[in-house]
Structure prediction request, 694 residues.
Amino acid sequence: MGKETKRTDVNELGEFGLIDHLTSSHQPMHPSTLKGIGDDAAVLDYGGKPIVVSTDMLLEGIHFDMMYTPLKHLGYKSVVVNLSDICAMNAIPRQITVSIAISNRFSVEALEELYEGIYTACRNYNVDLIGGDTNSSKKGLVISVTALGTADKQKITYRSGARPGDILCVTGDLGASYLGLQILEREKQIWQSNPGVQPDLEKQTYLIGRQLKPEARTDMIVAFENAGFTPTSMIDISDGLASEVKHLCKESKVGALVEEGLVPIKDEAQLMALKFKLDPITCALSGGEDYELLFTAAEKDLPIVRTLPGISIIGEIKPREEGVQLKTVNEKFHPITAQGWQHGKGE
Amino acid sequence: MGKETKRTDVNELGEFGLIDHLTSSHQPMHPSTLKGIGDDAAVLDYGGKPIVVSTDMLLEGIHFDMMYTPLKHLGYKSVVVNLSDICAMNAIPRQITVSIAISNRFSVEALEELYEGIYTACRNYNVDLIGGDTNSSKKGLVISVTALGTADKQKITYRSGARPGDILCVTGDLGASYLGLQILEREKQIWQSNPGVQPDLEKQTYLIGRQLKPEARTDMIVAFENAGFTPTSMIDISDGLASEVKHLCKESKVGALVEEGLVPIKDEAQLMALKFKLDPITCALSGGEDYELLFTAAEKDLPIVRTLPGISIIGEIKPREEGVQLKTVNEKFHPITAQGWQHGKGE
Prediction:
């Protein structure tokens, strides 16, 4: 069998390439499947309000390091990253399922901590835990969460709706989560070479908090609703601004111009980036795990967007042939390249 | 912190005890959550037809052994076990999400095999793959599937609806999957001690097929519908008849009498059980992974049930105080004890 003798390494394709490769031939058959694979979440129509469904798996040693991740934070974050995908569809999350696999090095008390984080997220975001299962694993901790939510049909926002002339916006600030991770990783290295040393987290509670306990922007979805605003396209920032802008442009068949000087980066993040000899804009573009929302707005909605709290206009949607570019503070233009799995983050 | 010094081993509680322990304090808040944790699937109401949701995680070395599980079969089975949970609610599955984690020992070609099995299940059961993600794992293969389906609200069948006097029925036959597993395990042992020996699967394609490529009984849900029949309660047989009868009785607050002589066990399974010096009824009661449906019917529906193809009436629902009992072919009565995680099957 020729097929069995060929061996292509999965890293050759990268995560997104791999998913495309494995799923591109599958076409949904049911009229109830409004949107299948290819956005932040799937959209189903069972006759009432549309149902938005998203799922994510987190693995120890790939997505989180037990050395500096408290179990309660981990439980919270594993829910939040899924709720963020529901938000990215301009929908409100309502239910989650959580399946976990644990090795016997985890005690019942450790699991209680994990579930305390899960339930805290349920309370904070007003979602119900409706199912899941608990398995033993040979090694490590695995958490798989599926989130379900809903929105009015005409308000569901896809990655594909951006048009040239739309303004490109982002909620909150970027890069902080990645810098929080750098601090935690540095302290881990120091501790591993000298376990007597106390960790120096430099009181960087904001940066570390963004990494260990991110939030989903359901508040912005409510703000959009209250303002009578519907984005033309949206995606959540899990892999970094660069990757998400590229996704959005690819699905919308457009280009974009991002202005470096307009990308929101907090002072703490700016300073910490310099300390790590990193370029702050690189942290924002490629860092990931901010779980902010990147969205586009029709030009006519600019007055409304300006009234929304904590929104930054970072650029503009361009025709496809102009590509996806960054205009630096020195007025130079660089093509933006996506960073995905190859980036070594496993996601 | 007293809490952190205490360490309770997860095996002390068992799988079902652990899930109860971790989830019993969580009460659904949304009116859209008709049924949360505690049945084969959750039931949601988003205004149209109810949505039935179930999720399961399968882990290498726990739920399957790559030594004798072809990847295509594994993909198929990982979908089927979830569709079976949807069937257990008297619902028809429509969509699935599939998340996988793989170590780099798997090639793209291996993943293609896995997805070929997943897509074959999608085609056979007319379900859409609508989402999921692909992750790297440090070790082993993890597959997490969420299935969604629907049914008319008045037809959704819970574990809790059995009443004394109801007849207890099962679809298909039991014990074969467990015996298929015994054959595969035996050949693995022989091969490990002498890799030159060819496996002797004794042409047991039925038994081995039941283990490696089980089917979900969507056909029975259609047959129920066509006959105008709705069970009073239902559960799918993943952990063995004993465990499922106990679950059903617990949730329905009833007892049951199962007659050994009425439990459907195929001749191939009877013979293979004897070969392995196992009691055939034990294989049916505790073996598991048959993915048949255990259901109860109101006495008035007995004439309809008799017309349904491949159904066995195996006993009767009794008042709670009579307990859950097995009447042997020798007219002796034994209490049925559930077997869950302690059974060493990890599920």
Remarks:
- Residues 159-343 of chain B form a domain with the Phosphoribosyl-aminoimidazole Synthetase; Chain A, domain 2 fold (CATH 3.90.650.10).
- The longest strand of chain B covers residues 92-102.
- Chain B has eleven helices and 14 strands.
- The first helix of chain B runs from residue 2 to 5.
